[in-house]
């Protein structure tokens, strides 16, 4: 099939020279992205053909939407939303214009030029191509939803790294933050619900519970913020804190695993403040090719744009405060551009954010687990 496509491209280019370049790009897109195993899930290389085709078709959709004029795109999306069953598709609400506008930031523009990216939305349909380019901005394991070039990436940051001078101050607040979380777990334990996967809003991750201050799509969970006012105040005092990105207490039960996945963007650094880690050597996180463990009261900073995975091999619960800050490579001038576009992108997710909140509440209301079922802070007694 690949040879036939390549031969057709050569013949077509010979007859119609003006179309040769466009056809070459399409063929290259097909050859590189058709066999991309990134989204094949647990099936991996053994994924059925239908599964592989579906994900390639999704890339083709992104290719079409990203390359038609903005006005035409709006008309097409409006027409698609009138089709029964498609009006609630969150992908149709994606803000291509503001994503591409981020390239006006100087650091991003330089990075895009270095890897041959003309528009940021190219990432949506050519992720395998760009992620496998050798550069200080890319890595085959770095596959976020929204990639932003020009930012040097690494899986983990060293403890007390110079880029984040506020770390010691936040670590000193560990006890106060832990006390607020424990109070919530005592007075309102059902608020700490099993994690609902945002992509389908049906699947849950057993053994992983969350108490959102900001939900995955950026909705401010104001009632929850009021339950932990000191924590929310501390977060907002951190330079570069991103209040529109997912922020939460993340609770991992004994024996639980969070499967391999990649985060929203490489432009943010994910921060974990471990507030309950009774068995440090048994709470493990892999980010790209590197592995670390948590230590109570010690910040763990990493780039969750990398493929990453989490395990609790212990017999007690692990709890971390989880939030994002802007990447230190981004300058004040960069952020002036990015913040405006980022706010618009998040606003475009508003309908989905509300739906996620409703589904999460419904799931929490149906949850019959008591606090003692998930917050285990003592070793089981031997018999």
UniProtKB/TrEMBL annotation:
Indicate the secretion signal residues. none
The protein's UniProt keywords, in alphabetical order, are: Dioxygenase, Oxidoreductase
Give the SUPFAM superfamilies listed for this entry. Clavaminate synthase-like
Report which superkingdom the organism of origin falls in. Answer: Eukaryota
Q: Which GO terms describe its cellular component?
A: membrane
GO molecular function ontology, one term from the record: dioxygenase activity
Q: Name one Pfam family in it.
A: Asp_Arg_Hydrox
Residues in Aspartyl/asparaginy/proline hydroxylase domain copies: 172-328
UniProt lists the family membership as follows:
Belongs to the aspartyl/asparaginyl beta-hydroxylase family.
Task: Give the protein name, as stated in the record.
Answer: Aspartyl/asparaginyl beta-hydroxylase
Taxonomic classification: Eukaryota, Viridiplantae, Chlorophyta, Chloropicophyceae, Chloropicales
